[in-house]
Amino acid sequence: MACADGNYADIEVKVSSQSESGNDGIKRPRFHYSTQVRLARQVPMTPLHDRIDLSNTHNLPGSSFYQDGTLFHGPKFQGIQQVLNIGEQGLTLECSLPAISSTEVGQFASQHFNPFAADLAFQAMLIWAWRFHQSGSLPLKTDTLEHFRKVPFETQFYLSMSVNKNSATALSANLFLHDEQGLMYARILGAEVTLSKSLNALFGKKSSKPGKSRIRN
Predict the structure, then answer these.
(1) Domain ranges of the chain
(2) How confident is the model over 79-92, as a mean pLDDT?
(3) From CA 88, how far away is CA 157, in angstroms rounded?
(4) How far apart are CA 9 and CA 38, in angstroms?
(5) CATH number for region 60-203
(6) CA-CA distances (angstroms) from residue 85 to 119, 135, 165?
(7) 213 burial class (0-12, 13-18, 19+ CB within 10 angstroms)?
(8) Per-residue pLDDT for 74 more than 60?
């Protein structure tokens, strides 16, 4: 549905599959995901994230999280270079994504949006979940994702996360992808994941002492 002045269009999206239920053999839709997408005719002015913290107080290599099972992502998604700082209120990551060919992207190629960069937001939540709850996590929902410009490959950028609320079973946060000056590529508001220690084994997480984290403040 387009707005009256033609500046944007709102699209309702639902992802479903057909599955048989009951004894009648009739296939019925099973809904998996839904969202509302707003496409703007004009690209909005790039906002500034004015509360960035690039202080390198922890200096933790990103490769260690992919190697020890905190993160389970393959090579093309391994964009976290370093955890600059992490605390109860959030964290800051230094990131850079490896180049990927059009053949590897296949039918999901995008000219203006980098989904590999967006995935780093939920990787950040995994790192935080392990630090403070020793649990793995899986995405549940996102309230809003605003895209302003594409994150280029093989270019350094930053991801800042601020915690909204958390418990032993859930984490909600806002995440901002931005450059060194704070100019945003995208912001994700109300991202929520479910936490469970049972996910650690599924992710291949190497064990550590109960109640302890390998990351220290």
Answers:
(1) 8-40, 60-203
(2) 98
(3) 22
(4) 6
(5) 3.10.129.120
(6) 20, 19, 19
(7) middle
(8) yes
